[in-house]
Design brief:
By secondary structure, the protein is mostly helical. The protein is 67% helix and 3% strand. Its main location: Golgi.
Length: 269
């Protein structure tokens, strides 16, 4: 292997240089495409397993969206957990979440730095640190519920799910609070657009989280036909709105770049 002096031009060139907007799109598309692939495969090859419920309630066609053509309709949507816990769907989902988790940690650190440069009062500084911790917990919870399925160790999967949902909702709320402070002093149109989207997506996500919890409890209690379908639809909307919330980083870091390079001369340790 050729030895390159530290001061050479080639060595000091950036090793990796990616725009933050592109990184945001890739980070969100990984779980989105993975989820779509899992749902399609589950409905095509594992339909009975994917639509099975503990009380063996089957959802007839007339309880589904009637405006969907029969040729494109299966029966009713299965829950996300059912779609990602089968084989090979679970490996597709784990692969996509594993790839997307590293950029999520990077984005959390980038937001912490961003907030520290935009808020100055101690209360907001502490809130930015707490929001950073919540972002880490959300990502860890997602990894935990992804790599430990409910069919393997239910208690661990349940703990990961609670950690993910709880930290996700509080993270969104704290983020909106920080952005409400930033927006008071920012004339930037992109930042105002990002703040409005964050607020709407948080309320949307919170509403369907509560609705999903209601339908899930009602299904487990009464096993009524059609209720599990309503739960599954709410669950998908919760996950998609969560992805959309994180996608707002597209506007927050427009024009910024992620770069991996050797440090300049005099700053090496």
């Amino acid at each position: 292997m050729q030895q390159v002096p530290y001061g050479s031009v080639d060595r000091d060139k950036p090793l990796i240089r990616v725009s933050f907007t592109r990184l945001a799109v890739i980070t969100v598309c990984l779980p989105l495409l993975g989820l779509i692939a899992c749902v399609v495969l589950a409905m095509l090859y594992h339909y009975n397993d994917a639509t099975y419920t503990h009380c063996q309630v089957r959802e007839p066609d007339h309880h589904c969206w009637t405006h969907i053509p029969v040729s494109l309709r299966t029966t009713c949507p299965q829950s996300i957990n059912a779609a990602i816990s089968l084989t090979p769907e679970r490996y597709i989902w784990r692969f996509s979440i594993g790839l997307h988790s590293a950029p999520r940690f990077l984005v959390a650190a980038a937001y912490l730095s961003f907030y520290r440069g935009r808020v100055w009062r101690l209360k907001e500084q502490l809130l930015s640190g707490f929001t950073f911790l919540l972002a880490l917990c959300e990502n860890v919870g997602l990894l935990l519920l992804t790599y430990v399925s409910s069919t393997e160790t239910y208690s661990v999967h349940k703990s990961g799910f609670i950690l993910f949902i709880g930290s996700s909702l509080v993270h969104m709320m704290c983020t909106c609070k920080l952005w409400s402070t930033i927006s008071k002093y920012s004339p930037n149109a992109e930042e105002m657009k990002s703040y409005r989207l964050k607020s709407r997506l948080f309320l949307f996500n919170l509403f369907f989280c509560l609705l999903a919890a209601y339908f899930y409890r009602r299904h487990n209690t009464y096993c009524e036909t059609g209720i599990y379908t309503s739960f599954a639809l709410c669950e998908y909307l919760v996950v998609l709105s969560n992805m959309a919330f994180h996608m707002t980083a597209y506007w927050d870091f427009g024009g910024k770049e992620v770069m991996v390079a050797t440090p300049p001369e005099g700053k090496r340790y």
